[in-house]
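Help wanted!
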Amino acid sequence: MIAVLGLVIGVIAGLVIEPTVPGWMQPYLPIAVVAALDAVLGGLRAVLDGIFDDRVFVVSFLSNIVVAALMVYLGDQLGVGSQLATGVVVVLGIRIFSNAAAIRRHLFKA
Amino acid sequence: MTDSEPVPGPPEPSAVHRDHDHRDHHDHPDRAVHGRRRLRSALRPGFSRGHLLAGLLCAVLGFALVTQVRQTEASTIGALRQDELITLLQKVTAESDRLDEQARDLDARLADLRTGTDRAAVAEKVARDQLDVYGVLAGTRRAQGPGIELTVQDPSGAVDAALMVDVVQELRGAGAEAMQIGGERIVATTAFTDHPQGQGLLIGDRPVSPPYVVLAIGEAASLHRALAIPGGALETLDSRRASGRVEERATITVSALRPVPSAGVARPAEQATP
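Answered by r_m:
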C-alpha cells in the first residue's frame, strides 16, 4: 500500500517539479531506472510468493541500481560503454520478463 | 504489505526463481488463490519503518522514471555516451566536409559561368562597336560628331569633278571619317562626274548643283587647316573665281545614307594563304 502510494507520489512529484538531470548522471539514470524496475517487480513477485521482506527489498533495490550504474561507468571507462549498457538492459529485461511471468501465473492461474 | 506474512527467503530473483521452479509442482488454482489473497493483504494499509522505506524507494523510482522520460523527450544529444557522441561528431564532420567540397565545386562553376558570360558580353560589345564603325565608314549609318561645313559658291560653273575630288581627298587626308555633299553620302566608291548638260556635277548618280555644301566629320581644326593650306583647296577655288567658306562646328550630322551593299559571290576567306 505504502509502496503504491510512494510510486504515485513520486510520479506526481516528477511531473510537478520537472527536474533536469545533472550531466554526470545522464548516462546512468536510464540504466538505474530499469534496474529499479526489476527490483520492484522482484519485490512484487516476492509479495505474491509470500516471501517479501522489507530489508531484502531495500538492499536489493539499492544494490541493483548501484551495480547497474557501476557496470555502465566501468564500460564507459573501458570504451565499451554503449555495448555494456545494452547488455545490462538486456539482462534486466529478461529478469523483468521472468518476474512478470511469475506474477501473471500467481494472479491469473496461467 | 504486512508483517503477518512469514519471510522464509530473500526476494533475490535467482532465489525466487529456484523457489518458483520448486513450486511449479503445486496445482495452479490453489497457488493463484494464495497469490491474490496475499496481494489483497499487501494492499491493506499498514505502517512500519521498513514499509516506509520501501515506499520511499518506490517514490524515488517514480520520480526518476518521470524525470528520465522527460529528459529523453527534451534532449536527444545530452543523454548520449562519450563514444556515441564521438561517432556522431565524426559523422557530422564527414558530412560537413562533403558539403564544403560541394559548395566549393558549385562556387567554381558559378565563377566559370560568370566569367564566361562576361567574356561573351565583352565580345558582343566589341562586335557592336565595330559594327558601328564599319557602318559609318560604309555609309550605312548616320554619323554625328565635331567637324566642318564647307560651302562652295560657284556662280560661273568653274568647279568640275576633278576639283571636287581634290577637296574630298584633302578632307580624307586630314582624317575625315564621314562626309556628304548635298544629299549624297561620300564613301570610297562614290564617283564624281561632270554633269552631261554642263551645269553642276553628278555625285554618285545624283545631280548636285551649286552651291555645294560639304559636311565632314573629323577633328574640325585639322580639317580646316587641310583646306586652308597654301596651294590647297580653298586657294584653288579662289583662283577659279569660285569661293569656299569653312565653318567649324561642334556637332555635324551626316544623315545621308548609302544602301547596304549585298555581297554577291564573295565570301570571307578563313585565312590568307601566302
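OP: Thanks! One thing I noticed: Chain B touches chain A through 61 residues (CB under 8 Å).
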